[in-house]
User: What shape does this take?
Amino acid sequence: MKKLLFTFTLCLMACVTYAQTPRTVYCDVVGKAKFLSLKINISVDFGETVNKYKCQLVGEDNKIISFTSMVQAANYMAKRGWRLVDTYVLAEKSVSCYGNFHYIMAKDITSEDQIKEGLKLVSDRKKK
Assistant: This one.
């Protein structure tokens, strides 16, 4: 009986330890200059949706957050546990001479709930 209890306890501990093992998740923070403005709107791509508008960050007032630079956006994400991994720019043909700025960011999590922790997207707005 003691061996059975010991084996059960050992298996339970292994399961709990496995569940707490952190894993790394990634997101693509895309910054696009607003037309006739020095501000930047960003969208956060977690690999789940193709509608960039629904992935834009909103504040507590449910208004889309505009940033003055991609560095400000990176600092915003860093305060929420994300770290910068890589950056690149994709040029686009438009009136603006700017392209889309992409910041690849990573975060170590132990549960799926932690991915969007501290972030509110347009898609998270309450329907009225």
